[in-house]
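Input chain follows. Return structure tokens only.
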Amino acid sequence: MPRATAEQTRDTWLGVLEKHKKDAERPGSDDYWSPSLDCASRDEIIAIQNDKLAALTPYLYENSAFYRNRFDRLGLAPTDIQTIDDLPKWPVVNKSEMMADVQENPPYGTYTAVDDDIWRSRGWMVFSSSGSTGVPRPFRYTQIDREYWSWANARAMHSFGIRPHDSLLIASGYGPHCFAWGVQYALARMQVGMIPGGGMNSDARAMVIDRFKPTVLACTPSYALHLGRVMQEKGMDPAGSSIRMLLVGGEPAAGIGNTRDRLEDLWSARLVEFYGCTEVSPHCGGYSCPASDQGDGPVTTHLMEDIQIWELIDPDSGDRVPEGERGLTVCTSLNSEASPQLRFLVGDYTTYTTDKCDCGRTHVRAIGAFSGRADDLINLRGIKMYPTEIEQAIRAIPGVGDEYEIVLTTNSDGLDIMTAWIEHKNESVAQAVADEIRTRCEVRVDVEVVEPGTLPKTEFKANRIKDERKA
């Protein structure tokens, strides 16, 4: 049987995507943007995933040199991966492979399915990873992607409880980052008014809240803390403001109880969370629901399974872990013309459950949300911990300021040590913080206390870990 052409596989792929796109322009009910998808049975979800996967693999083979070379190198054909049960045949794709591809094929690499002709005919926007852990990886997304993004994000934001009577302030820069753009296009689809706060300083954004009374604030968790403090310094009360909801993304928050509590108390608002990444989930992959933070158990985050396949793998063996066990997130994107990556290692630790949620949605949920990325793991003298564990410990002590820094250095004896810099009015709190970190992380740390307002303020994503150890 002759091989299909790149154009034929593209037409098939886009046709399958369109077939499974439900309630595209407006919500299907008060509770669910797409009742038939959000509340589909497990069998229905798997059938959608398998239908998309069977069209995805030949599409990637014919339209991405990165994937074609990988298939050939592994001795696999696209027909070898047709269902979710076939996925373990395909080793996960990691960031380092994409970095190498960009270096060999500048400036865009070959890991997306968009060539120069497609880009010229319907290019939308270039997004990029930060490059903080290596070479920045650009992604050329198309106008078709923009439509699927706005639809997926609208489904998530409808779950948050955002409705046409709301208005939203996006307090984020409009650089090559997915979050703000995806929120903006979803709001247009939802017919929800928004105020673009890109380019404004914090004083200006505080005045926007005071004057125009938006009901939802969209930003990173760190910036929500900073903006609330700026309002207090200006004599405004964030808890008494019009903001009823904090829509956060870019950093863990929902799964860090002490951070979530601090934000919700500061603003007297509910915190909801977007989860995703530039590579496979530039639109919403994970999202909060009306029941996500209710009850005595941990918070949970829904994952939109009809547009992505989410797996967890063991960090050492790379094997899938059973439901209920902790592992690293792996995502196959099923909702993109440009970047339908196959088993990309997103790399956050969590635990999955497919139990039906109290909100009525049936898609898999991450128990405790996402609170530790493998790339962020700190190894101090053989003891391993995540920055989120340290954050939880610091925020557990009353009166500690919003900003803190963790500095890793090597002393004159060649011993690696950790110092936590915190803000507090009383230096005697240092021992309480050290004890809390030791209890949670099983490591001794030095704690330095400085006056409130001393440490640098977070304007976008927080970068609180400074590793200055000798190699």
